[in-house]
Amino acid sequence: MRDRLLRPPRGVPAAAAALALLCAGCAAEPDPDVYTIMNSSTDEPYHSWDDEVMKECGERAGVQVRQLSVPADQLVPKALRMASSHSLPDVLVLDGSDMPQFASAGGLVPLAELGMPPGELSDGARSFGSYDGTYYGAARSVNSLGLFYNKDILEEEGVEPPQTWEELRASAERLTEGDRYGLAISALSTEDGVYQFLPWLWSNGGDERRLDSPESVEALEFVVSLIEDGSASRSAVNWTQADVNDQFIAGNAAMMVNGPWQQPVLAEHPDLDWGVVEVPVPEEGAEPVAPIGGTTFTVPVDVEHPGREKTAGRLVECLTEPQAQLEWSTKASNVPVNPQAAERYREEVPELAAFADQVETARSRTEHVGTDWNVYSQAIGTALQAALTGEATPEQAMSRAQSQVRQELRSRR
Amino acid sequence: MTTTLSDSAKSPGPGARERSPGAHGRASARRRRIASQWLFVAPAVLYMLVFFSYPLVRNVVMSFQSYTPRTYFTGEAPFTGLDNWRAVLSDELFASSLWHTLLFTAGSLLGQFTIGMALALFFSRRFPLSGVMRSLLLLPWLIPMVVAGTLWRRVLDQETGVLNEALQGLQLTDSAIPWLSSPDFALLSVVLVNIWIGVPFNMVILYGGLQEIPKEIREAAVLDGAGFFRRFFGVTLPMLRPVVTVVLVLGFMSTVKILDLILALTNGGPANATETLGTHTYQLSFLELDFGQGAVVGNVLILISMVFAVIYLRANREGVAQ
């Protein structure tokens, strides 16, 4: 009797486990007329705007479109789980820096195969939607970073919006007064802070692949100098980009580095008179290189239903055509990638025109390092914080970051 | 047993014919009893297998595999032996996150328990409004961790935070304290916030334990002339021992795996000063998408929790035996 109690009945759990696996393995056969687009538009009004344009494009393609929105930080884990059960949506809207992970796994259809070559996009915009030279993701609208300034404060102090690092340092110092800092930035160790460091790094000729190069170290030294001058708050290491925006709105900072997506929040404060210029460059005449951010529309591979891929491609084409880009960018305070659309955008939304210029020369984070970007990002975030908190000199921090990347990449090969 | 005895007493007959059907009946009854015992155990066993054993085994196996986004598409996760373990254990960040986890857990438990105990003792004497105050003190426990973390991040902000303004207003400090923006302070600040969150739990459980101690014993100790500290260490604490073990072990297990609070407060920063095993495994698995290495850190965390789970079970058994 004791023996029997101790011996587990093998059949039952094994059968249950098999059943569970079976159900996970066999995805339900999709409804032939219903197409799913998965994105991270969980916030209103974006979700209803998307519903509208998706419905329109669905009608044009003769199918019904269902929008499935999940929170941005859960999109990749969820999509991976769906991939393992072969139940990915027909169109997957991925953040530009996550797209290579899916493309490298062979999970996405090259858009050229669906009749959508990258066409006349700028190099930056093309690399944004590409992995390893193949174009997988069509962008509807993208974002970048710019330097926002409070017009009233700058006028009062007689300061012109700075264009070079030297000017930025000088004006930030002049604009710092009492509780007010000259400049607000985000230096969080996550993507928020890393994204904000890239304009300094890249415009100076630095590169994530050579973090210990003099140009890369110099970029970090510049950001540290702003904090050491007292022109930017030490709390930057805890601030998200939304926090930076709050500081700017509250008048605690005369200028800030931020993206066009803050425009709706800024618009809620009509008494705040602000402008945007491109992020200052190391020397006059140098080309600003900021990062491109945003999402791309991709079509996951669907071996069993190649016909669905074609229709999904038509949906993507409709959602990202120049007119759709212009309309969406205007509503959502982003920038179109199509040059003609961008041209009209400059006229229609002059207050954000600086971002359209910035995007022309901007670069994608995954252009050179592809799926390894996350490793680089972690290392850069740590270096940024180590230097800003005085835990290490910029040079030490960057050379540590370089060896951290090397070690991590070696362990992956 | 008693029935058998009385049966045999009543009918002491030859019984050879009767015994065999009786024995047969007993055997089938026993089988039925075993079957019904299994029926009672089965749901729990099934639950454990599906929701504990399977993920646990998967996590251990995963830590020996190269498990990347590609795996989700191809279903292939090649075994790479000890590569993941070697990579994680040789990383300085692992050592420092282990150390931070230890400091965080020890500091949090010490603070939570001491303050919780003090409050429990305070409230164990009846006084007007004690019930209201006790329930108000529960509030931090009811606030979701992420909300608490976000609020405290504002309170602790170096320039615009309320805490620094209060301290400076009271002339307690000259310059603003970089609570979350300096690697030297960040871990301490995170521990303080976690103490704030954990005090109510400790207080409630210990208060409940104090109520169980018979009043007479305390009175007897008072009559014997024991002072407050003598009473506390000689009578109250020994009698509370089982409760104290429960509080500390449960507290340990919820503290050692901390993730949400730190993500909301510091994101593991600045400069990895508050990186713990929880945030490290999150970072490896969900930001770097290296699920194999993430699993290694997760396994270490499970191992640590398991050691304390065993201690808890032993302590509990002793408690029951007593």
TrEMBL record, chain A:
UniProt keyword annotations, A-Z: Signal, Transport
Pfam families according to UniProt: SBP_bac_8
SUPFAM superfamilies: Periplasmic binding protein-like II (SSF53850)
Signal sequence coordinates: 1-28
Record-linked InterPro entries: SBP
Lineage: superkingdom: Bacteria
Family: Belongs to the bacterial solute-binding protein 1 family.
PANTHER family: MALTOSE-BINDING PERIPLASMIC PROTEIN, MALTOSE_MALTODEXTRIN-BINDING PERIPLASMIC PROTEIN
Protein name: ABC transporter substrate-binding protein
From TrEMBL, chain B:
Region (Disordered): 1-28
Limits of the ABC transmembrane type-1 domain: 98-312
TM stretches of this protein: 38-57, 98-123, 135-152, 185-210, 231-253, 291-313
Topology term for the membrane: Multi-pass membrane protein
Cell compartment(s), UniProt: Cell membrane
Keyword entries, A-Z: Cell membrane, Membrane, Transmembrane, Transmembrane helix, Transport
UniProt-listed PROSITE patterns: ABC_TM1 (PS50928)
The keyword Magnesium belongs to this UniProt entry's keyword annotation: no
Family statement drawn from the similarity comment of this UniProt entry: Belongs to the binding-protein-dependent transport system permease family.
Protein name as catalogued: Sugar ABC transporter permease
Taxonomic path: Bacteria, Bacillati, Actinomycetota, Actinomycetes, Streptosporangiales
